[in-house]
TrEMBL record:
HAMAP family recorded: Pro_tRNA_synth_type3 (MF_01571)
Protein name as it appears in the record: proline--tRNA ligase
Keyword flag rRNA-binding: no
Chain positions covered by the region annotation Disordered: 1-77
Top EC class of this enzyme: ligase
GO cellular component entries: aminoacyl-tRNA synthetase multienzyme complex; cytoplasm
UniProt lineage: Eukaryota, Rhodophyta, Bangiophyceae, Galdieriales, Galdieriaceae
Catalytic reaction(s) noted: tRNA(Pro) + L-proline + ATP = L-prolyl-tRNA(Pro) + AMP + diphosphate
CDD domains: ProRS_core_arch_euk
Molecular function in Gene Ontology: ATP binding; proline-tRNA ligase activity
Length: 584
């Protein structure tokens, strides 16, 4: 069993990974040229204004008398801080906030309603946007025959160990084993070859919302790395390369928008290096996110230009206006449920989940603060008043919940809804009944705002908008402080070791990238990074994350590379500013 998750573990794989990382080298000396001070918030929220000043205002008879219930209550919350043990914190959080239920097959997780709702919000937003671009949804089978899968040997070769196969029905072996799709190029493209005849059939833009299976051997993590996951995969075909190039960026912009405008997670747009791009394609663009608490970057979504590679393999051709037969240019692009995990890691805290209002299943909870004893009449009025507010908010389209359970104390309810990431709490006590004001508490900052009852709906809407906006700004500010600039190896590794991403002038050669990866692993091993790896099952190797687009460099005030710039690693001529980091 896994010490943190209670999942069945894969001991042999962990052992293999650790034994790979034990080589030594000498540590570097000097410090990085940071874009700012590294800020990794390691503290529990200290807000005095916070939450539970009213905790226990009404001890319910049960809570008072039953030690059993008390025990249960204290186990509801997180027992570990984000800064003390990040991966244990995350595993507790996804379970206690009722996002994930573990399953008896390693790497497979149950997405509970609370997390599936978030996925639905992402789906609904992205689906609308791609439809505006003329993309149509379809559904292709989950199974791929061996011959189809191998039709396109080159790119599948590297992934072969991850393909899961069905070999039996009941007790009888199948005539030919059948693969479960790890991605659908080989499933879809034979149909594309049939459907596309003339230039009039182009562009063809197909998307599917589906599940895929990749039998990963790396340590699984809920949302971030699972053996079955949900995603959308878009597959498009065009008459010209220009149209394909244009769509690659349109989709990348939508991915940025999903992360930044919906999930309030800042991302960096860029192009993948040759080593990190999708092997079957021409070039890969990416949005990269960052988890400050462990200094890990994470690929958030990718938009590939496939060029004519697949058109060659699957014979996807069209007759142009002049009756010449031509090959199509294709793209593919994907966004997965990993996005939910990234959002949780970036925003949540020691009290539990913090959700941006746009995707929060419950945006507001109304909690009556009842009077202790023998005041049933007043308590009843209090409930009625709470119901009125709930209805008002509901009518405005706000996702609101009224919690008038009478076997739970207000303090217990505060913690309960904080753990589950409800954005705002409206507290209604006897004081509020007799005044014209209400108290609203923000989940992300703990800030209390007193509002006039007449303005409740407007103020709630305002607070939700502000919270959405500030969550992104805060996360971006922290993320930007985790980017250093380095011109040499020592500065580079020092920054990496302080959980930073590093922007460095680079020669763009694959050989150099491989050498950086090797040397950074040696370096990490020599600095005892092994033990961190052991705990987190993440490697100490440093990779290129992307060659950031100019717009990103401009935002950081990084001027273009000057003529004589040298590669930070191999000292040959530098071709591009490149973002490096340890990653998931
Ligand atoms: C695992 C097994 C077999 C990734 C795999 O990114 C094949 C593959 O082709 C494989 N893992 N890939 C690359 C997927 C490329 C591409 N497909 C459509 C995307 C977006 C959506």
């Amino acid at each position: 069993m896994d010490r943190e998750t209670g999942e069945p573990s894969e001991i042999e794989l962990t052992t293999l990974r650790i034994s790979q990382g034990t080589i030594s080298s000498s540590p570097p000396a000097s410090s990085p040229l940071s874009l700012g001070e590294p800020v990794v918030d390691g503290s529990l929220p200290k807000s005095k204004k916070n939450a539970s000043s009213r905790e226990g205002a009404v001890p319910s008879p049960k809570a008072k008398n039953s030690s059993n219930l008390k025990k249960k209550e204290s186990r509801e919350g997180l027992e570990v801080r984000k800064s003390d043990d990040f991966s244990m914190w995350y595993n507790q959080l996804v379970q206690k906030a009722e996002l994930i239920e573990f399953y008896d097959i390693s790497g497979c997780y149950i997405l509970r309603p609370a997390s599936y709702r978030i996925w639905e919000a992402i789906q609904s937003y992205f689906d609308k946007e791609i439809k505006k671009l003329g993309v149509e949804n379809a559904y292709f089978p989950i199974f791929v025959s061996a011959s189809r899968l191998n039709q396109e040997k080159d790119h599948v070769a590297g992934f072969a160990p991850e393909v899961a196969w069905v070999t039996k029905s009941g007790d009888s072996p199948l005539e030919e084993p059948i693969a479960v799709r790890p991605t659908s190029e080989t499933v879809m493209y034979p149909s594309f070859a049939k459907w596309i005849r003339s230039h009039r059939d182009l562009p063809l833009k197909i998307n599917q919302w589906n599940n895929v299976v990749r039998w990963e051997f790396k340590h699984p993590t809920p949302f971030l790395r699972s053996r079955e996951f949900l995603w959308q995969e878009g597959h498009t075909a065009f008459a010209t390369k220009e149209e394909a190039d244009c769509e690659v960026l349109q989709i990348l912009e939508l991915y940025r928008s999903v992360y930044e405008d919906l999930l309030a997670v800042p991302v960096i747009k860029g192009k993948k290096s040759d080593k990190e791009k999708f092997a079957g394609g021409l070039y890969t663009t990416t949005v990269e996110a960052f988890i400050p608490h462990n200094g890990r970057a994470i690929q958030a979504a990718t938009s590939h230009c496939l060029g004519q590679n697949f058109a060659n393999m699957f014979d996807i051709t069209f007759e142009d206006e002049n009756r010449f037969r031509k090959k199509v240019y294709q793209n593919s692009w994907g966004l997965t449920t990993r996005s939910i995990g990234v959002m949780i890691m970036v925003h949540s805290d020691d009290k539990g989940l913090v959700l941006p209002p746009k995707v929060a299943p419950i945006q507001v909870v109304v909690v009556p603060i009842r009077i202790r004893v023998n005041q049933e009449e007043i308590n009843h009025l209090l409930d009625q008043e709470c119901e009125t507010y709930t209805l008002q908010l509901e009518r405005r389209g706000i996702r609101v919940k009224l919690d008038c359970r009478n076997d739970k104390t207000p303090g217990w309810k505060f913690h309960h809804w904080e753990l589950r990431g409800v954005c705002l709490r409206v507290e209604v006590g006897v004081k509020e009944m007799h005044s014209n004001e209400l108290v609203i508490v923000r989940r992300d900052t703990g800030e209390r705002t007193v509002v006039s009852k007449n303005d409740l709906c407007e103020r709630i809407t305002q607070l939700l908008d502000t919270m959405q906006e500030e969550m992104l700004l805060r996360a971006r500010n922290i993320r930007d402080h985790c980017i250093s600039v380095a011109y040499n190896w020592n500065d580079f590794m020092t920054a990496i070791d302080s959980k930073q991403m590093v922007l460095a002038p680079w020669c763009t050669e694959t050989r150099c990238e491989e050498e950086v990866k090797r040397q950074s692993m040696e370096y990490s091993a020599s600095r005892g990074y092994d033990s961190v790896e052991e705990q987190t099952n993440l490697t100490g190797a440093v990779k290129t994350l992307c060659l950031p687009f100019e717009e990103e460099l401009n935002r950081w005030n990084i001027s273009p590379l000057s003529a004589g710039s040298l590669c930070f690693a191999c000292h040959s001529s530098a071709k591009a500013w490149t973002l490096w980091g340890r990653s998931y």
